[in-house]
Structures are given as structure tokens and as C-alpha cells.
Amino acid sequence: MTALISPSPKTGLSMLLLYTGWYFSSALEWMHQHVIGHHIYTNVPRKDPDLYHNASMERHTNTLKWRPLHRHQALTWIPIWAIGTFAMSYLKPLQLFLTGKYNRSVAIMELDTTRIVLHFTGRVFVFFMCHVWPFLFFSFGKAVLFATIPVAVVSISFMLASQVNHLSHENVDRYSPDFYKHQVITAHSFAHNNYLTFLFTGGLNYQAEHHLFPCVNHCHHKNIHDIVVSVCKKHNVDYHYSPSLWAAFKKYVSHMAELAVKPKEQ
Question: Structure pTM?
Fold first, then answer.
């Protein structure tokens, strides 16, 4: 995370690998969306960009004005999940440069020429390898499959591992002036006893621990979990938990259905 912001030339190789090696997001996009926006202002209206992805079609907070397309979001999340990382990889960075903000929440940082060149070079490289290269070597039908199915699987997997972490009735529109308490009450952890879920999510099922200690490797989250829960109980802080990924997913779907309903005051 810190390598994305550090100006040190020692991070040059890491930066090159980050900008050309990630499919699901440009490192520049991830820096604005996740490192600066989401981790600092988790679920804070008009500051956390994750609350405003596809705002015309999805409503994740009561602070966002209801729109007619929101009534379908209990179903439209399905195709959105399939193309989510495509938008993050290519479309959202364009929005950032054209408007100066990411999801109307995070202002673009002052970027040197090297970062900008790395960003656009990396996106062209990734787009070519994922969506052009198959058409140079395979038949049209096979190329279409290679250019769409793998990235859709990656997108759906990423969305499943990330969207259930904060978008539920228990976590949205909650706030505390205490930074650490706020990180806990807006996080949704799940399936701590399932090692496959731990591997699939990259440890994000320990979401509260991840937000409290973002620079601690996820392999240690299990070891600090009991300490976190103990401190939460001591200070009467809600630690939101679901016993399985399926249970966490159902809370997400319920949240989408709940906010699909037009508020009476509108």
C-alpha cells in the first residue's frame, strides 16, 4: 500500500510491476480508491468512493438520492459484478483524469510524469494481453471466450471477496469520531473457521483486523483476532460477524434489496 504513494526511486521496480501486473485495477486507481479513499474514510458518505460505484444503478447508502434504476439493484448487481474489474481497470481511471475526482469523492493527487506514463502504459499492456492477444492466435469464437470468461471470473471472485465486507445493513450509515471504533463498526468479518474462505478472500474475511492494521500481513490476522474482540467487548463496540461466506453474501443481497425501495420522503 505504501509503495503506491512513496516517491522513493527504490520502489521503481515495484511500481513497474504494479502498473503492468494487476488486471483488476490500475495501481493509480487503487491508490485513490482504496488506499486514500476507502481505508481512511470507510463508509463515510461523500468521502468513501466505494459507496458510489455505479451510483446511477446502485444505491449503497441512504445519503444517496434514490433513482428509478435503483429499484432493480437486487438483480442488476449480477452483471455489474461480472464487469466490475473491467471498469476499475480501464474506465474509472479515465473518469479520474477527466473529472479530477474518483467517484466524486477523492481528488486526484499531484502526479509526476513517470506515474502517469506508467499508468497508461500498464493499462495498454494489460488490455492488449487480456483482450487483444487472444484474437491474434485463436479463432474468433475461441478468442471471445478467452477475452471475456477469465476476466469475468476474476471480477466475480474479486467482488464476492470484497463487497460483503462493508455493504450490509449493520455497517452502512454508521459513524464514530473515534477512528478505530469507526473501522470496526463499519467492517463485516466472516467465516473465521473456514480456511478455504481465508485463502479465497486473501484474509479479507478478517475485515475488522484488516482495517485496524492494514499494513500487517493477513497471515497474522487470526492471531490478533481474539485481542481485537476482547477490546471491542471491553468498550462496547459492535464487532459484526457472519459464520460463513454464504451468510455474509445473503446480508449483502438483503442490503441491496432494502435500499432498492424508494424512500417515503422522496
Answer: 0.88
